[in-house]
């Protein structure tokens, strides 16, 4: 099993000319889509901005991710009030990244924030996290001005936790490192739906390697595949996905990075030479007829270059 440094942080180095995804919350509207009784995906009207989720049981409500600031957190709470009169009990952070967790502070104290132990441990430097996320604000740095505290999870777990909302069981899983070290999967067994945060994307979209490199990421995906009979994935960003092709294509892409860049390093290629040698794969170029192509294709180019850089840095001293 591949070992990672549990105190590592997101890589801040970026390739020359890199443009990150647009996470500016201005104009973001979350659109509820019912997946089964009491199970709703909240899909961003303007991908790749953040998706969320709402799960309703007889006893109360669980929300997936808190939004990037107070305004989005309040929008989520308003949607919950429109969907049900049941009390909001839990907010689960799928990752520590600020676009998923900065809104924690808006939720009342009686609403418990839940995440993996590793995600909680990664919430240790608010100013650094704000600086990194501000690069995705597209000139709207003021959107993060209200975030002056980083509310930490009240409840945290190592590998697995189940929450009974009343005739609705929600499973929380931490299979290992992926996009970040503490990626938390929110799984609803009776719907076979999983919210994955930054851990997965729809097939045809590039993931983002931010901590640890591809090898541990592959192991973690394979653990998830062996454990959960999931049919539908709600990624943190972009369209929902059929689970099998999304996970299979993600593993194949990461294996390609691992193999090709390991070979480049052994052959003595520099980082710049490696970046030049690996343009975006054809499998991640959506056809013009795909409605997501105008956003996804430019994003994929930059995310892939970041992944090549991150893989090179993860492997260069192995």
Automatic annotation (TrEMBL):
InterPro entries for the chain: Metallo-B-lactamas, NDM-1-like, RibonucZ/Hydroxyglut_hydro
A Pfam family this chain is assigned to: Lactamase_B
Range of residues in the leader sequence: none
Domain of life of the organism encoding this protein: Bacteria
Residue ranges annotated for the Metallo-beta-lactamase domain, each copy included: 50-237
SUPFAM superfamilies found in the cross-reference section: Metallo-hydrolase/oxidoreductase
PANTHER family for the chain: ACYL-COENZYME A THIOESTERASE MBLAC2 (PTHR42951:SF4), METALLO-BETA-LACTAMASE DOMAIN-CONTAINING (PTHR42951)
Name this polypeptide is given: Metallo-beta-lactamase domain-containing protein
């Amino acid at each position: 099993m591949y070992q990672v440094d549990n105190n590592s942080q997101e890589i801040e180095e970026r390739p020359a000319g890199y443009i990150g995804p647009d996470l500016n919350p201005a104009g973001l509207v979350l659109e509820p889509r019912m997946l089964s009784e009491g199970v709703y995906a909240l899909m961003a009207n303007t991908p790749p901005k953040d998706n969320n989720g709402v799960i309703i049981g007889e006893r109360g409500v669980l929300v997936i991710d808190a939004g990037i600031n107070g305004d989005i957190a309040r929008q989520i709470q308003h949607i919950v009030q429109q969907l049900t009169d049941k009390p909001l009990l839990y907010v689960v952070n799928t990752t520590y990244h600020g676009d998923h967790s900065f809104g924690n502070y808006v939720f009342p104290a009686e609403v418990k924030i839940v995440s993996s132990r590793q995600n909680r441990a990664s919430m240790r430097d608010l100013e650094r996290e704000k600086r990194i996320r501000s690069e995705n604000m597209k000139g709207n740095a003021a959107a993060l001005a209200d975030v002056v505290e980083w509310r930490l999870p009240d409840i945290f777990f190592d590998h697995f936790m189940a929450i009974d909302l009343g005739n609705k069981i929600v499973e929380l899983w931490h299979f290992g490192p992926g996009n970040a070290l503490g990626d938390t999967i929110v799984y609803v067994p009776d719907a076979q739906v999983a919210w994955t945060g930054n851990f997965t994307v729809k097939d045809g979209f590039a993931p983002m390697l931010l901590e640890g490199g591809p090898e541990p990421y592959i192991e973690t995906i394979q653990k998830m595949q062996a454990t959960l009979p999931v049919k539908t994935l709600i990624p943190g960003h972009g369209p929902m996905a059929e689970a099998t092709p999304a996970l299979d294509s993600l593993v194949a892409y990461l294996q390609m990075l691992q193999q090709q860049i390991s070979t480049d390093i052994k052959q003595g290629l520099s980082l710049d030479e490696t970046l030049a040698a690996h343009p975006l794969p054809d499998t991640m170029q959506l056809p013009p007829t795909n409605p997501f192509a105008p956003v996804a294709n430019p994003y994929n180019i930059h995310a892939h270059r970041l992944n090549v850089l991150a893989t090179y840095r993860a492997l260069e001293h192995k």
